[in-house]
TrEMBL record, chain B:
<keyword id="KW-0547">Nucleotide-binding</keyword>
<keyword id="KW-0677">Repeat</keyword>
<dbReference type="InterPro" id="IPR050107">
    <property type="entry name" value="ABC_carbohydrate_import_ATPase"/>
</dbReference>
<feature type="domain" description="ABC transporter">
    <location>
        <begin position="261"/>
        <end position="499"/>
    </location>
</feature>
<keyword id="KW-0813">Transport</keyword>
<dbReference type="InterPro" id="IPR003593">
    <property type="entry name" value="AAA+_ATPase"/>
</dbReference>
<dbReference type="InterPro" id="IPR027417">
    <property type="entry name" value="P-loop_NTPase"/>
</dbReference>
<dbReference type="InterPro" id="IPR003439">
    <property type="entry name" value="ABC_transporter-like_ATP-bd"/>
</dbReference>
<keyword id="KW-0067">ATP-binding</keyword>
<dbReference type="InterPro" id="IPR017871">
    <property type="entry name" value="ABC_transporter-like_CS"/>
</dbReference>
<protein>
    <submittedName>
        <fullName>Sugar ABC transporter ATP-binding protein</fullName>
    </submittedName>
</protein>
<dbReference type="GO" id="GO:0005524">
    <property type="term" value="F:ATP binding"/>
</dbReference>
<dbReference type="Pfam" id="PF00005">
    <property type="entry name" value="ABC_tran"/>
</dbReference>
<feature type="domain" description="ABC transporter">
    <location>
        <begin position="8"/>
        <end position="244"/>
    </location>
</feature>
């Protein structure tokens, strides 16, 4: 294998390229981008725009997974954050007031930070297994979101708030800039400071890390906090995009898509090495897949089945063992007798 | 013996890993009813050869024959089916299950799909009494027994899989002398029953005590196969380490060098103790002094060291540093006071397996500096390169994953990690366990050199010779209590043995 093929982004990029190519063949104008009123329109832009919340959640999830943890509560945090922001804005006298919107956004982010810290404390302080610890908030969080919205869908009529999730900056969706900013912060924190090394070290071997003087508890707490904040921002994007908050359905099953994106991106659930850019590509693959399925008109009742098969294929392509098995089969396909001989020789 | 057919014969075995030739044209013959030792330095290829034989790794090239018929081994199941059973260094059983369950797991006696518990317990007890001379309650969980008993249970399990060849991978490394004797009695019994045993060990004495023949590997190649009786100790060592004999010869000279002057008191433990670990003791270490801790396994050596580093919370007493006036309550605080600790559990408390050698080396320094004072990539490479050269770490590539290194080289990386933090006190808990003679001598030399430059050491080792060689003063522990302190002038193996044995 060439060093090029060994790069951790090789297979995710291949899959993404294959999906895009399929779309291009299916509908030739898939790549076309047009400009209306200074906004760019097109399927690719849509993928980036609609994929933004998932990318955000997946970035946070990557760091949690790197510490050998998992955060199931992100979907609920998405719902809570959107609900609290929309509730505050909808109760304001002037829903377009900048002060009110900034205050609401800040409140939602702070709340998700607290929720992330709750997860982190359960995991690192109380020593509960991550899957159980975050399951608590996954279940309870849906309830909290519904309490906030009073079981209704809260709608807001605020063009300023809607800008976050559906506005444009320099002809591109504003959400892309939000994602880019969070990704930059994550990359800077993990690759320009030693935090990335500490996270990987704690994920590989927490006991040895503590003995080397790393504050393993703090590292674990901080990744859950970061993950919570990412989910909170994703909740703002989602609710602002549709100008409403739905405690029941906002961010439903996001945790699973996010975990999938992390794994497709090359980060192992066993902790240790993590790849933020891989995760972003993984999330884009999932979003492209969803878009594709809608576009080619798969009947809604089998959408999930089709998605599952594609995901299965993606995972198999990425598995070294599977590729090796296929390659071995391919090599020996013309010489069945050689296999027979091999049994006696070695 | 040579007229007999070998039961197991491996010829022309090759195994490559990316960038490393682990085995080159290696041969191994095992005759029925013999104990055959496999020896060599770390990185000689012993573990690889065993993993190849047990199907953990696949063979690149070569032939394995059992009873004269070629067998192909691609998985541990193939290996078991061929009659090869293995007991690994770290006991690979389930500590929470009962002894009987551990022996029969996967092959429980069943009737109509239900496990017959009575039958299973009965048969387990029978197996242990008959073949192991071990009379224990087989319904208790495995973890309620000592490591030695666990080892015997592992062997019983291996034998129960109708084995013709038994591989024991360093079975004695965590056993005390009595337990070793017990194990050897059983090995002799099994040998008489016609079983062939492949015995991997680092201990020369044990090799001579039990083995008929010995195969020696070096650098992934076969050095030769010898009758144990006809091979002198010096020859054995020479064949194992090759040309590096001068390292061993240099040591006594260094140790016998003039008494170096010791500085002021650096650290003091007063009434330091922990329930179930070690009874309260006093110990002080001066600047530039090497204090040895001697005692049998389980005498409280490690427990004492962990208290010095703050890794465990003491129930009594405290550690103080008179010069700075502070104490030690946690590893972080210890590191802040420039104390370093190399744990005896290299795998679980030392290396970060999936990170590179470079990252492992700078880890403690980076943790000490904090996350925002990042060591630049360039500086990391400089530091790693410097220490790889200084400590002779092999392979000398900083971007290799540490888990791919041999035990001795992993240990050197850990030493580098701590030396980088410039400690004033370096606690070494079994720094040379499970590593080859060459690396051992290098580590001992390093301790002597650094102590002359003013670094203090707390040095723990099961090997008395080693403790004697490096220490200025030796504290002796027995049954979790400090019983004696001996200073250099009246140190002798005799003296210390008496103190350790008590009476």
């Amino acid at each position: 294998m060439s060093p090029f093929m060994k790069h951790h982004l090789f297979w995710p990029l291949c899959v993404l390229a294959a999906l895009l190519l399929f779309n291009l063949c299916y509908s030739p104008d898939f790549f076309s981008i047009t400009i209306h009123d200074g906004h760019l329109y097109g399927s690719l832009i849509d993928i980036l725009n609609f994929g933004a919340p998932l990318i955000l959640v997946a970035i946070g999830m990557t760091l949690v997974v790197a510490t050998k943890g998992i955060d199931l509560s992100v979907g609920s945090i998405v719902a809570i954050s959107g609900a609290i922001a929309c509730l505050r804005i909808s109760s304001g006298a002037d829903q377009n007031s900048m002060g009110l919107i900034l205050g609401s956004v800040l409140l939602a982010v702070l709340l998700s930070l607290v929720l992330g810290a709750w997860n982190g404390l359960l995991v690192s302080g109380a020593g509960i297994q991550p899957i159980i610890a975050t399951l608590i908030l996954m279940v309870a969080g849906r309830g909290i979101a519904q309490l906030i919205t009073g079981g209704q869908i809260i709608t807001v009529t605020s063009s300023n708030y809607a800008y976050i999730g559906s506005g444009s900056l320099a002809a591109l969706p504003f959400s892309i800039f939000v994602v880019a900013l969070v990704l930059m912060i994550a990359l800077l924190l993990t690759r320009r400071t030693a935090l990335g090394l500490f996270i990987e070290s704690v994920g590989c071997n927490p006991a040895a890390s503590s003995m080397s003087g790393i504050r393993a508890h703090w590292v674990i707490l901080s990744v859950y906090v970061f993950c919570g904040v990412c989910a909170g921002i994703a909740g703002l994007l989602l609710s602002s995009n549709v100008s409403s908050a739905d405690g029941n359905n906002a961010g439903l099953w996001y945790e699973l898509d996010a975990i999938l994106a992390v794994v497709i991106g090359g980060t192992s659930l066993n902790g240790g090495r993590f790849y933020l850019t891989g995760t972003v590509i993984g999330a884009l693959i999932i979003q492209t897949l969803t878009t594709t399925i809608y576009m080619i008109g798969v009947p809604p009742e089998i959408t999930l089945v089709v998605k599952a098969f594609v995901v299965l294929a993606v995972c198999l392509i990425q598995s070294d063992a599977f590729r090796a098995a296929i390659a071995a089969r391919w090599k020996s396909r013309h010489y069945p007798a050689e296999k027979e001989m091999g049994r006696h020789v070695s | 013996m040579s007229t007999q057919m070998p039961i197991l014969q491996m010829t022309g075995i090759h195994k490559r890993f990316p960038g490393v030739k682990a085995l080159t044209d290696v041969k191994l013959r095992l005759y029925p009813g013999e104990v055959h030792a496999l020896m060599g330095e770390n990185g000689a290829g012993k573990s690889t050869l065993i993993k190849v034989l047990t199907g953990v790794y696949s063979i690149d090239e070569g032939l394995v024959e059992m009873d004269g018929t070629p067998v192909s081994i691609h998985s541990p199941q193939d290996s078991q089916a061929a009659g090869i059973s293995t007991v690994y260094q770290e006991v690979n059983l389930c500590p929470n299950l009962s002894v009987a369950e551990n022996i029969f797991i996967g092959r429980e006696p069943r009737r109509f799909g239900c496990i017959q518990w009575k039958e299973m317990n009965l048969r387990a007890a029978e197996l242990l009494t008959e073949r192991m001379n071990l009379h224990i309650d087989v319904t208790l969980p495995l973890h309620s027994y000592s490591v030695a008993v666990q080892q015997l249970v592992a062997i019983a399990r291996a034998l129960n899989i109708s084995a013709k060849v038994l591989i024991l991978d360093e079975p004695t490394s965590s056993l005390d002398q009595n337990e070793v004797d017990q194990l050897f009695r059983i090995m002799r019994k099994l040998q008489q029953e016609g079983l062939s045993i492949l015995f991997v060990t680092h201990f020369l004495d044990q090799m001579y005590e039990i083995s008929d023949r010995v195969t020696i590997l070096r650098g992934g190649e076969l050095v030769g196969e010898y009758m144990a009786k006809e091979l002198s100790r010096l020859d054995l060592v020479l064949k194992m380490i090759g040309k590096e004999l001068h390292l061993l010869e240099e040591l006594p000279v260094l140790a016998a060098e003039d008494q170096h002057s010791l500085g002021d008191e650096l650290i003091r433990a007063e009434g330091l103790g922990r329930k179930g670990g070690i009874e309260p003791f006093d110990l002080s270490i001066r600047k530039g002094e090497v204090v040895g801790l001697a005692g049998l396994l389980g005498s409280g050596r490690t427990e004492a060291a962990r208290l010095f580093f703050g890794a465990d919370k003491p129930d009594f007493g405290q550690v103080t540093l008179p010069a700075s006036g502070g104490g030690v309550h946690s590893p972080r605080e210890a590191i802040g006071r420039r104390i370093a600790f190399c744990s005896e559990n290299r795998k679980t408390e030392g290396i970060i397996g999936d990170l590179t050698v470079r990252e492992n080396i700078i880890l403690a320094l980076q943790a000490k500096d904090g996350m925002f004072r990042t060591i630049s990539r360039k500086r990391q490479e400089e530091l790693a390169g410097e220490y790889i050269r200084m400590l002779n770490i092999n392979p000398p590539s900083p971007d290799q994953l540490i888990k791919n290194l041999s035990g001795g080289n992993q240990q050197k990386v850990l030493l580098a990690r701590w030396l980088l933090t410039e400690p004033q006190l370096f606690i070494l808990d079994e720094p040379t366990r499970g590593i080859d003679i060459g690396a051992k001598a290098e580590i001992q030399k390093l301790v002597l050199t650094l102590s002359r430059q003013g670094m203090s050491f707390l040095f723990i080792s099961s090997e008395l010779e080693e403790v004697l060689r490096v220490s200025d003063r030796i504290a002796i522990l027995r049954d979790r209590r400090k019983v004696k302190e001996i200073s250099e002038k009246d140190m002798s193996q005799q003296q210390i043995m008496q103190a350790i044995a008590g009476g």
